[in-house]
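By convention, each integer encodes one residue's backbone shape. The lines below illustrate.
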Amino acid sequence: MASGASPILGMPPHRLWARRPGIYEDEKGRTWVTVVVRLSPSQRARSRASPGGTHEPEPSVTVHMWQMPVHPQEPVSPSQLTLSRLPLVWQLYSGRRYRAMDSRLWEIVSHGQIDSTEELVLTELPPGNG
């Protein structure tokens, strides 16, 4: 059994690239697995919707990712990666936010550890919160 303390939790990843649906890789080659994707009505968007309007606000998305190794698998085509509502790339932006390739902003809700697993929780911000 290997000895050693668990790694010190530092900064969140600077960049996350989609490798397979639900699986991302950071700049250090570590894999991040999407374990929960939660959709909920955006309270901010709902409060801005005009009364009596027919336009329903888009739900906000919250993503829980765990840093864990995964077995190598065959690469997937880019078209298979675009089926998800999640970005193909997240880039650490300002403070506690990521900017996706499509310019959507995602706020870091939490970055911590559960037992020995590093967890990153992101929530999509409504447009105009940049």
Notes: The radius of gyration is 17 Å. Confidence is low (pLDDT under 50) at residues 1-6, 44-50. The beta strands are 15-20, 23-26, 31-41, 59-67, 89-92, 97-100, 105-114, 117-124. The longest strand covers residues 31-41.
